[in-house]
Design a protein that fits this description.
The protein is of the alpha/beta class. The chain contains nine helices and twelve strands. The chain has one domain. 26% of the residues lie in helices and 18% in strands. It has a nine-stranded mixed sheet, sandwiched between helices. Strands 6-8-7 form a three-stranded parallel sheet, with no helix packed on it. The longest helix has 14 residues.
Length: 324
């Protein structure tokens, strides 16, 4: 059996359907990414491989780039609930530098000025602390530690910490959002973007569903969700944040509960941040709808030309230039 990663405002209406996202004016220097669990692994992979596109990352309960080495067996042995021996951080870092020289990931110099926000709950037994610690250590090979915020002293299970939404914080069950009296979405966005305003109202705009080109060939849903604050509809310059769900959190499994309960929407509305929520489709080789961090889409899964990696990067670029 596979042992895979499982991973606050409410919408007033069902998502609006559209073939294309509205015309946007995105600041190319304010594009960031975050994710939880398998989504955190993918967020990390995207940040490393496309640091020329993403200027920062927020990651909850995930491990270092290349941890699985393209093998589910290796992933289960050292990247989840147990770690057999020390994780080879120096080897991982050397592999990234070699990949950068070969053009498989971006020049690592682009990481140097990026903020990174990391979280690991003390009650998380799905991804153990040693794995998350290794993620921090790997980032420290490329980014000054002063730019890495690591929250690892909060009592939370393997869940997305929220305030007033979800299941008890000490439990890990659908929709894998925990009522922890801790606003992880706000913490992430405030660290990645300076000078944010706290949400002043509970009302938010509607989600829009848009087509995600090429998605089905990479195990993704051919529709994704986009949240566009009212100000961004007026062609005002806005930021863009890509949010990646964890395993068992895709829309095919829980609808829009993760999107609605995580807390991203009111912060985005108050601060002109466009949100993008792509979705993984459950399949026989990926029953929990996890992002690919061990190679189920092929051996290039973590490189710039990896099936899911390229689709997401191309989509983000398309959103950013949709108003051109």
């Amino acid at each position: 059996m596979y042992r895979l990663l499982f991973t606050s405002a409410l919408l007033a209406a069902s998502p609006v359907q559209s073939d294309q996202a509205p015309s946007l004016n995105i600041d190319p220097g304010r594009i960031t990414v975050s994710g939880i669990s398998a989504g955190g692994q993918m967020a990390h992979q995207l940040h490393i491989a496309y640091s020329d596109l993403f200027s920062g990352a927020g990651i909850i309960a995930a491990g270092p780039f290349g941890c699985s080495e393209g093998s589910l067996v290796t992933a289960l042995k050292r990247c989840l609930s147990k770690v057999d021996g020390d994780l080879p951080i120096a080897d991982f870092a050397a592999g990234i530098r070699t990949a950068a020289a070969e053009g498989l990931v971006a020049d690592t110099a682009a990481l140097a000025d990026d903020p990174v926000w990391l979280f690991h709950g003390t009650l998380d037994t799905v991804v153990v602390a040693e794995v998350n610690n290794a993620l921090k250590a790997l980032y420290a090979e490329f980014i000054p530690e002063a730019q890495i915020r690591y929250v690892n002293d909060f009592e939370a299970a393997h869940t997305f910490p929220s305030r007033g939404q979800g299941q008890p914080c000490t439990e890990s069950r659908p929709p894998f959002v925990g009522d922890c009296d801790y606003d992880a979405a706000g913490e992430i966005l405030n660290y990645l973007y300076s000078g944010l305003e706290a949400p002043s109202a509970e009302s938010v705009s509607e989600l829009t569903t848009v087509t995600l080109p090429g998605a089905t060939k990479a195990g993704l849903n051919d529709t994704a969700y986009v949240y566009v604050p009212a100000a961004c509809l007026d062609r005002q310059s806005c930021s863009l944040h890509l949010v990646l769900h964890g395993c068992a959190q895709s829309a095919s499994q829980i609808g829009t509960e993760f999107i609605e309960q995580s807390g991203f929407l009111p912060w985005a509305e108050a601060n002109d941040i466009v949100l993008a929520f792509p979705q993984v489709t459950p399949a026989a080789n990926n029953p929990y709808a996890c992002w690919d961090w061990w190679g189920y889409t092929g051996p290039d899964y973590r490189w710039r030309n990896g099936a899911q990696m390229k689709i997401l990067a191309d989509w983000v670029r398309d959103l950013a230039r949709s108003g051109d």
